[in-house]
Design brief:
Dna Topoisomerase Vi A Subunit, Chain: A, domain 2, single chain, 40% helix, Helicase, Ruva Protein, domain 3, 5-stranded mixed beta sheet
Length: 203
Amino acid sequence: MAEYSSILLENAVEELSKLPGIGKKTALRLALHLLSEETCETEKLANALLKMKHNIMLCQRCYNISDEKTCAICSNPHRDENTLCVVADMRDVLAIECTVSFNGLYHVLGGVISPIDGIGPNDLRIAELVRRTQTETINEIILALPATIEGDTTNYYIYKQLSEYKGKITVISKGIAVGDALEYVDEVTLGRSILNRTVFTQK
């Protein structure tokens, strides 16, 4: 294990290495870079992170991250309010938006049903989704959940909960490899999967 001449540097490296995909070597490079920067630049980064942590909230309509009570997507008058894309989390919204293939609204569940992780239907925003179908004019619901057993289970559960919904329920096409999370799928493949979505059927 490397020995640091500064406990302050060691603490910074330790905290940075807790970030996803950041090992100790990368964390050390980042810490040394920040150390060599002008103080005002490092303060900008620290302030941006603190403001993000303290001020970001969930949209009261779709539950995506937002700076206001209603997010920029939900409040955009040019979005198609009659088409709703159901995703597991906010990272999926960002992934789909990068494809520029979808112009509707979203509903963020907050995960997928996973008994092994202690996540059941009541831990997700499925009841809120059902309420949206009752209070909003939604012609199509696109199920864009991960291509995993948990994702398929959640798709089926949502389908059953929407038994009184009169619109169309579709699922993104199988261009997504089994086991893939949407955030890791390339933009072209994800975009095609949304455009080539198919009607959801019970199996």
